[in-house]
Amino acid sequence: MSRDPLVVGHVVGDIVDPFVTTASLRVFFNSKEMTNGSELKPSQVLNQPRIYIEGRDMRTLYTLVMVDPDAPSPSNPTKREYLHWLVTDIPETTDARFGNEIVPYESPRPTAGIHRFVFILFRQSVRQTTYAPGWRQNFNTRDFSELYSLGSPVAALFFNCQRIHRFVFILFRQSVRQTTYAPGWRQNFNTRDFSELSSLGSPVAALFFNCQRENGCGGRRGRIRAALNSEYLQQYFVTQPITPMVWAFKMLGVLKLYGLDSYARIYVPLPTHHGLRLGPDHFQKFLF
């Protein structure tokens, strides 16, 4: 079985046919060089990357294509391939800034699942006029290469990118029983302001898990709702005295029942001396 990342990542097959790498392509996001199969966050790829093509002959020109074969979602890629960037006439030894930008760079904004973002480099035989496609979705790298007689790719790189949301449970210890009113809306809630308004002080424990956005959460979102509404969880908190450590591990147990424990992290306070106020540095991290 091939260990080539382009084969393992199905770049070869989904986007291009098998080819032999004959050029050195380097891609940098914010001065950090990416490698095949890198995991990058959407915030890391907001700005146009720097593209370097190593060589010695500036008369040799290249065409660079950047596509997303997983749009709008890997399970239903109806927009495959989505064109993020197209630059032609890039001289060897330079970067993409010296080329002719046909389609401006559009930063990746995956909405569901893990998306592959692929840079494909072609060596041009001549300088030629290349026209921008009418739209970005349903671009086809193979057809584009054939239309402009570019032949097989000479290099390719790809990275994975997904949007992750954090869901956080925060536990406060009340000094007294008091009336708490529901906010008028769910969005723009501020935990710090709520704690101050209700005189709750600092949290005594917290737990969070990660979840992909929209279709990436899919059934997991339903399991989250079931976990929060579970009779076991409600009965336990109503009938049992609880410490922060016990609360955190009970929460983890509930998440485990619903298959969510692999996404969870627990934070509980460490013992402090002289009654010092707890801050982020006083929390011990438990990984599961």
From TrEMBL:
Gene3D superfamilies to which the protein is assigned, alphabetical: PEBP-like
Biological processes annotated in GO: cell differentiation; flower development; inflorescence development; photoperiodism, flowering; regulation of flower development; regulation of timing of transition from vegetative to reproductive phase
Tell me the keywords, alphabetical order.
Answer: Differentiation, Flowering
Question: Taxonomically, which superkingdom?
Answer: Eukaryota
The cross-references to PROSITE patterns, in alphabetical order and at most eight, read: PBP
Q: What name goes with this protein?
A: Uncharacterized protein
- Family membership, please give it: Belongs to the phosphatidylethanolamine-binding protein family.
Q: Which Pfam family name is an example for this entry?
A: PBP
